[in-house]
Write a structure and sequence with these properties.
The protein is mainly α. The chain folds into 2 domains: 31 residues, no CATH class; 35 residues, no CATH class. The protein is 51% helix and 0% strand.
Length: 82
């Protein structure tokens, strides 16, 4: 299972469920490691309501390269599809 292979997975059940849904290992790990991974309805504001700077910070956090050359809509698309 995930905990045997990846020590950084905090919510193994959530990770496995996301992998079963077809998400990449990286995306499933990122989601399952969020502090509120088991809770529904996060409190983050929608991507469309964020400033470009906030989007750049989010893109950096998840490892999107070339983010500084992107406009706001391209950043939103890259974050959603990462």
């Amino acid at each position: 299972m995930a905990k045997d292979n990846r020590k950084s997975i905090k919510d193994d059940e959530k990770y496995e469920a996301l992998r079963d849904q077809g998400m990449s290992k990286e995306k499933a790990a990122r989601i399952s490691n969020t502090p509120n991974a088991s809770k529904k309805g996060g409190k983050a504001k929608p991507l469309d309501d964020r400033t470009k700077q906030e989007l750049l910070e989010e893109a950096k956090k998840i490892g999107i390269t070339g983010r500084h050359k992107m406009n706001k809509s391209t950043l939103i698309n890259a974050i959603r599809n990462h």
